[in-house]
Amino acid sequence: MRISTLTLGGGYAMVPVMQWEADRLGWMKKEEFLSLLSVAQSIPGPIAFNTAILVGKKVAGVLGAVLSGVAIALPPFFAIVAVAGLLRPFLHNVYLRAFLLGVYAAVVGLVFNVLIGLLKRQRWALLRTMIVGVGVALLLASRSALYAVFVASIWLLYVWGR
């Protein structure tokens, strides 16, 4: 939790501190940490979170993975809640609302850009295309089935993608 609380610069700034701490505490040598880091980079999600979970699992099993994941995620969560609380009185301010709408648009654009990149790199077989198409159609037709459609689509892609 100390690493996540005191490190500025995001996930990639936390990784060297994690490596230093793991080596200092005798949990693992640099080579082993770098091996886990390469695995963490191949898993979707924030690099600091993935690395913390893998290091925690290596050191203390599943409980270590869960605790390290919680420890790395809690400080940013509380920071976001605190900033949101500070901004709440100013939400009626036209300039702040315009800024937040601009940030929202930028985030949507960045996520869409990543999606397009992923779609371009994907090998599209007929079955995979049908699964994605049906999943998108079901999500557009009924938002109440969001999680079920998402999980079913991921499962089908995994099972038939082997």
Summary keywords:
162 residues; mainly alpha; 7 helices
Structural overview:
This protein is mainly α and 162 residues long. The chain folds into 3 domains: 1-90, no CATH class; 92-122; 123-162. It has helices spanning 2-6, 11-24, 30-42, 47-87, 94-121, 126-141, 146-160. Helix 3 (30-42) crosses helix 4 (47-87). The radius of gyration is 20 Å and the shape is globular.
Give a brief outline of the structure.
81% of the residues lie in helices and 0% in strands. The chain is an all-alpha fold and 162 residues long.
Topology:
Layout: H1 2-6, H2 11-24, H3 30-42, H4 47-87, H5 94-121, H6 126-141, H7 146-160
Largest sheet: none
Number of strands: 0
Radius of gyration: 20 Å
Number of helices: 7
Query: Helix- and strand-based class?
Result: mainly alpha
How much helicity do the residues have?
over 70%
